[in-house]
Amino acid sequence: MSAGKDPARGAGAKAGRAAAYAGLAVLGALVGTAGALVQAAWFPGGLLLALLAAAATFYGGLRATGTQAGALTPAAGWLVAIILLSMGRPEGDGVLAGGLGDLLYLLGGMALAVICATMSRSPQPGGLPGRLGR
Known about the structure:
Blueprint: H1 7-41, H2 45-65, H3 68-87, H4 100-117
Helix pairs in contact: 1-2, 1-3, 2-3, 2-4, 3-4
């Protein structure tokens, strides 16, 4: 039996991939929460630091998995955390109040997620050149 046809090996790879994506989503939520606190505390340096951390998380997910889903999964976790933090509580407390820094963090993070998700992946070793006509 070849290694590619082993059902136990395929199930283990799928479980590992699912665990990696779940970990990336949790990491994205943690980065989003920390970034929301940092950008409000140290404006404008904190905003740049928070956006840099978000970009590193999205790009790291892309490179770690080699798929666009690797960039979108932490971005989804990041966005869920940001939305939950902006909703606040009935008492009126909210981490993201809707000021200029908060909006720049939200829009900048979403733009970085799109940029990282649409980046070209590195070519596979030993692959064909990009132009097939030559």
